[in-house]
């Protein structure tokens, strides 16, 4: 309550757009929607982009239609095409993606971010925080601390769902998700965005809950090859540096696959 009173008292009017992309997500979409609409911070624009689901996804979305600002339901060319459609509908200062199955950690996340922004002398282009990963089999939760954004050369330094992008920066630089990537377009988008960002801020806050064993973990070989492409094309790294990073990533992925308990000790903190 104090945070919201502080925001209202100081007339902070930061508007945050939230985009949810979904296709045949009837098992998870309601949890994601509730996570968004139950945020205590209300200066939001909620956008859902459905890829013309053939299950009951749209029936569930319709139950909350009065809480959703924009609903797009039409065939698309995949996840990243749908995310671009979401970007076409954003407004305000910042946008964050909370796709089907993802949730905010609790109802006060956006309120805390808004309060953090009020304390800044100048609004950052980019804000990022920590994430919580949920193991699908044991339901254990792990805190995944963000790396410093300067480690973008290694890959995504936190989850995409724990990043907020300034909308004006996106539009002024015409940044979109590149459909030539199968699973690495979020990394390419973030790398491109950071190149034109003058102010980057880390907030010590767990922003999202993310289920392990998602798209990137199931297609890890495609993933690390696409990371190579981003480092070469966008970040401009030479082949020797690129190969060194590639090799280390490969070792860490094998470690995660074969000895997950050891990897979790290295990368996560059990909650």
What does this protein structure show overall?
- This protein has eleven helices and ten strands.
- The radius of gyration is 18 Å and the shape is globular.
- The protein has helices spanning 2-9, 29-37, 57-63, 79-87, 109-118, 167-173, 185-195, 215-218, 220-233, 239-258, 260-267, and strands at 16-22, 44-50, 70-73, 94-97, 103-104, 126-134, 141-144, 163-166, 200-211, 269-270.
- Strands 1, 2, 3, 4, 5, 6, 7, 8, 9 and 10 form a ten-stranded mixed β-sheet that branches.
- It is an alpha/beta fold.
- The longest helix has 20 residues, at 239-258.
- It has one domain (2-210): Spore Coat Polysaccharide Biosynthesis Protein SpsA, Chain A (Alpha-Beta Complex).
Secondary structure layout plus pairing:
Elements: H1 2-9, E1 16-22, H2 29-37, E2 44-50, H3 57-63, E3 70-73, H4 79-87, E4 94-97, E5 103-104, H5 109-118, E6 126-134, E7 141-144, E8 163-166, H6 167-173, H7 185-195, E9 200-211, H8 215-218, H9 220-233, H10 239-258, H11 260-267, E10 269-270
Helix pairs in contact: 1-5, 9-10, 10-11
């Amino acid at each position: 309550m104090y945070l919201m009173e502080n925001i209202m008292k100081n007339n902070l009017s930061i508007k945050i757009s939230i985009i949810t992309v979904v296709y045949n997500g009837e098992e998870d979409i309601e949890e994601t929607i509730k996570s968004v609409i139950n945020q205590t911070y209300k200066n939001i624009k909620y956008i859902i982009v459905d890829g013309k689901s053939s299950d009951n996804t749209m029936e569930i979305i319709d139950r909350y239609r009065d809480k959703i600002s924009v609903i797009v339901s039409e065939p698309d060319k995949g996840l990243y095409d749908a995310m671009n459609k979401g970007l076409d509908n954003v407004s305000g200062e910042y946008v964050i993606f909370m796709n089907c199955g993802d949730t905010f950690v609790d109802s006060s996340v956006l309120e805390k971010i808004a309060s953090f922004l009020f304390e800044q002398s100048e609004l950052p282009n980019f804000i990022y925080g920590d994430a919580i990963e949920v193991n699908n089999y044991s339901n254990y939760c792990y805190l995944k601390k963000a790396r410093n954004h300067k480690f973008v050369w290694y890959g995504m330094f936190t989850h995409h769902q724990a990043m907020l992008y300034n909308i004006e920066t996106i539009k002024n630089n015409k940044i979109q998700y590149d459909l030539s990537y199968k699973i690495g377009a979020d990394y390419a988008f973030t790398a491109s965005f950071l190149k034109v960002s003058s102010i980057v801020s880390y907030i010590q806050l767990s922003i999202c809950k993310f289920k392990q064993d998602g798209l990137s973990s199931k297609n890890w070989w495609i993933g690390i090859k696409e990371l190579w492409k981003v480092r070469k094309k966008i970040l401009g790294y030479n082949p020797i540096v690129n190969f060194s990073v590639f090799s280390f990533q490969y070792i860490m992925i094998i470690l995660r696959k074969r000895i997950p308990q050891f990897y979790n000790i290295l990368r996560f903190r059990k909650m």
